[in-house]
Design goal:
HDAC_classIV, alpha/beta, 10 helices, Histone deacetylase, HDACs
């Protein structure tokens, strides 16, 4: 059975007019249920993750100043969120959902987190709506428990996974792959193990051709026994922060290919949602919803 992490804390509100669409975390579960993609049995409520697990990745000084709301104005401005206790708390449950999802993925092949994909969070700072890095913490957790020995992170959000790349730059057990807009944020890129920068306006055919030639090659080269997939839908043409020109159909085909490739190689995959900033909230929900639909089709039908 497909297992999906969702906690009510995911939908905590931001000030009216904020460009980060928090509403999607409330609307997406409703969409999945009303369209028959999932049932209530598919959802699980994650637990809050403990400090000791977070500190395997995040800097102690940064983390404690985050908890006590003592970041300075420059740090808060870099994050883009108001610094609030509920949003810090939310980050702990998101990581909990990703870690618990890893365990379900090992049992069922795949799991998804309604939130997460906080790939701009560095060990010692937050950036771009990301306070704590859920997939990085989960990857380190699996390695520390010796659940896996080699991890591949597949980041297909339109923005480079700079925080994740930096966190694992010297870790031979984690291979970071980011395929993103070359001229988009972050304007100073970190060095992933493999970066593929796409030109503005890249459409479905080029995007999918590159992905379909790259991912199987990486799996054969890296030989991972676990994959983290960041399935941002900000690659869509009308995304206000994206600059690529993919369609809903192309985005769904992307997800289907990633999932089919993981299944064919017998590699469990944990999926976090990542970005989506279209002015049309219905398009964001449909695009994210297709990710769950593709997961059901590939793994459970």
């Amino acid at each position: 059975m497909l297992k999906i992490a969702y906690h009510p804390i995911y939908k905590y509100a931001l000030p009216e007019g904020h460009r980060f669409p928090m509403a999607k975390y409330n609307l997406l579960p409703e969409y999945l249920l009303s369209n028959g993609i999932c049932t209530k049995d598919n959802f699980f409520k994650p637990q809050k993750i403990s400090e000791d697990i977070i500190l395997k990745v995040h800097d102690k000084n940064y983390y404690h100043r985050l908890l006590t709301l003592e970041l300075d104005k420059k740090e808060i401005r870099r994050i883009g969120f108001p610094l609030r206790k509920d949003l810090v708390e939310r980050g702990h449950y998101i990581i909990g959902g990703t870690i618990e999802g890893c365990k379900f993925a090992m049992q069922h092949g795949i799991s998804l987190n309604i939130a997460g994909g906080t790939h701009h969070a560095y060990a010692d700072r937050g950036e771009a709506f990301c306070l704590l890095n859920d997939q990085a913490v989960a990857a380190q957790y699996l390695l520390d428990l010796e659940k896996v020995s080699k991890i591949l992170i597949v980041d297909l959000d339109v923005h480079q996974g700079n925080g994740t790349a930096k966190i694992f730059e010297n870790n031979p057990n984690v291979f970071t792959f980011s395929m993103h807009g070359a001229k988009n944020y972050p304007f100073k890129k970190e060095k992933s193990d493999l970066d593929i920068g796409l030109e503005d306006g890249t459409e479905d055919v080029e995007f999918l051709t590159i992905l379909k030639s790259t991912l199987p090659m990486l799996i054969n080269k890296v030989k991972p026994n676990f994959i983290f997939y960041l399935s941002g839908v900000d690659i869509l043409k009308n995304d206000k922060l994206g600059r690529l020109s993919c369609t809903l159909e192309g985005c769904a085909e992307r997800d289907h290919f990633v999932f089919r490739t993981c299944k064919e190689h017998g590699i469990p995959v944990q999926v976090s949602m990542g970005g989506g900033y279209s002015p049309d909230i219905d398009m964001i929900i449909t695009a994210h919803g297709n990710t769950y639909k593709m997961a059901q089709e590939v793994f459970f039908k």
